[in-house]
Amino acid sequence: MKMEELIEDTNPIYDVNLISNNSDTYDATEVTENGLNNTNTCYQIPGLFTSKTLLELSNSSWSRSRNANEQIQPYLRGCKWSPDGTCCLCVVNNDGVHVTELPRDLYTGDVASGRLIDVLDSVIHVKESGLIYDFCWYPAMNSSIPETSCWLTTIQNSPIQMWDAYNGSLRCSYRGYNAVDEMEAALTITFTPDCSRIVAGYTKVLRTFDVERPGRDYVEHKITSPAACLATDSNLLAVGSWNSTISLYNVSETGTYKSIGKMHGHAAGVTHMKFTPDGLKLVSGARKDHRLLVWDIRYYRRPLNILHRAMDTNQRVYFDISPCGKYLVTGGTDGIVKVWDAEKNDWKSSLNTADEGDDATYKFPLHKDCCNSVSIHPCRPILATGSGQFHFTNPITKLESPEDLQKEDIDDFRDMKYSSTAENCLVFWWTGDVL
After folding, report:
1. What is the CATH number of the domain that holds 60?
2. HEC readout, 88-146
3. WD repeat boundaries (predicted)?
């Protein structure tokens, strides 16, 4: 099935906007083949994690070809649901970008325990020539409106590129240049909430592009440390850096930045951040840092709460917050998905003093390898998870006499990922009630 067929579907697709931070009720705009139809109707979506179990719905995996070099490892590096919930965008190491559709029977209704597991195929595959630094959907993306169906990528030695989600073609590019007029790649990208501008982070500057004006026209703002990740909400911009700090900015309508302050707390470079739906909290994670820090942006001098996950890699490990603001979900290098429920574990208003690894409301051992990404469906009780990481060759196997190796020498290798157990897959899980 091709993505164009979504337009002809008689079932409505919903562009949901949160109206209550403490409930699962949404103000939905019905999308038909004739365009938007404002029904002003509130829809109740099924609750997340109500059965405290996860049911596997679909699976897609990648493997190295038989004759490929040992260093070529096509593991998944991130997955994100489209804003309309019809498909999932994922980045695969050494294999570009893949778009995978949600099976049509999961658009509505409940799921039975005996449902067969779907084997997913990519409907779009864009092969990239270099390392993909970051990617994101157009926030107003809707499959029934072709103009909005697109995503951005920023790639090593390449400009920011916008891709068409219907056929995988390149729509346009946004290019940033340094002081000697050399094109440089952005390290991280995001859209502003109103979808009118693109914010790109570089090693020394932030550049703001107008979505409707591709090319090299941009507004530039100097920063003191490289931008590793970005998060936006309303007129706020959070910039996570490799030097472990987070900078807060107020962004005006003209694209100028006013510094609010810096937040210190992580032990290494910040790799991922996300605002809560109410815009008052910010959650951040860093490389080789077992803590997720929850910040109140009104009192940002110290973390509001500390949550724990397994994080023994420099790789970016994504987490997600449910549209209702009730759940925080993250993976880890141990393959366990952890869930914090704001009603059972108040992760948003008090400092957690629990022992590391014992503070989550729910724990699901879903993967045998690193669970590097999770993404919550915008309007259905479905969770997408991705697994995989780079596996090094075990240095001990190259020794002539491994029994002569001292214990302290073995400890030196504890952070190297040379396990023979590799799992590179994208999986959809049902988190609601099961028939």
Report:
1. 2.130.10.10
2. EEEEECCCEEEEEECCHHHCCCCECCCCCCEECCEEEEECCCCCEEEEEECCCCCCCCH
3. 263-298, 322-350
